[in-house]
Amino acid sequence: MRKDREIALKMRLSGKSYGEIHKVLKVPKSTLSAWLSKVELPHDVREEINKRANKKSLEALIERNKKQTFLAIKRVGEIRKTASKEVTELKDQDLLMLGVALYWAEGYKRVKRVRGREVTSHPVSITNSDPFLIKCFLRFIREICRVPEKRIKASIRIFEHQSEKHLLDFWRNETSILKENFKKTYYGISKSSEGKRPFNRLEYGVIQISISDTNLFYKIMGYIEGIK
């Protein structure tokens, strides 16, 4: 028997894998398989080899998943960065469409009725928890609708565990709405939201922007009709 084959046999019987034997003897794995595939291994040795092989496969799978996750995160980041660069400075028409679309999606649009008759007074009102969405809408209100600062009112809804002062300071800074135009703070969430989301998802509470301007309300409704 060839010396290297004899060594390979002894290594295999001691529980070494083909890969481990190959590293020592430099014999191709195909050759090792031809030499050793019919060798009967003791049960405990076979169990140990299978155990190590499974562990190695699991480690390889975990490493592959880590790489795939990293590549996926990198790919998503590149897609978002490329898309972000496609958005140039907003022109007035862009801001008009953006503001109307935001109100169409998030604003108060239901016409008020008392005893079956439509009430003639309707405020412009939008409620949301996203500071960037609110700031976009305020740009629309200020730059396109030309609403004076003194007419833009706000109120926030927060949870009992949150600091009213902290969140008032936050929203005043984000919106630049006059301090005196912030109305009473409400605690808790609306009945329509109860039980549907964990309270800790609303990090900044919820803010409502309102303007008492019936003409502006119907003007925005007209913009929406125009888009329709």
Word description of this protein:
- By secondary structure, this protein is α+β, with helices and mostly antiparallel strands.
- It contains 8 helices and 6 strands, in the order H-H-H-H-H-E-E-E-H-E-H-E-E-H.
- The model has no long low-confidence stretch (mean pLDDT 85).
Quick structural overview:
This protein is of the alpha+beta class and 228 residues long.
Itemize the secondary structure elements and their pairings.
Elements: H1 3-13, H2 18-25, H3 29-36, H4 43-86, H5 92-106, E1 113-114, E2 117-118, E3 124-128, H6 131-144, E4 153-158, H7 164-175, E5 186-187, E6 206-211, H8 214-227
Shape: elongated
Which structural class matches the secondary elements? alpha+beta
Overall pLDDT confidence: 85
Q: What does the largest sheet look like?
A: 4 strands, mixed
The Cα radius of gyration reads 34 Å
State the total count of DSSP E strands.
6
Low-confidence runs: none
Identify the strand order in the major beta sheet.
3-6-4-5
Distance between termini?
Answer: 88 Å
Q: What is the element string, with H for helices and E for strands?
A: HHHHHEEEHEHEEH
Brief descriptors of the model:
228 residues; alpha+beta; four-stranded mixed sheet; 8 helices; 55% helix; 10% strand
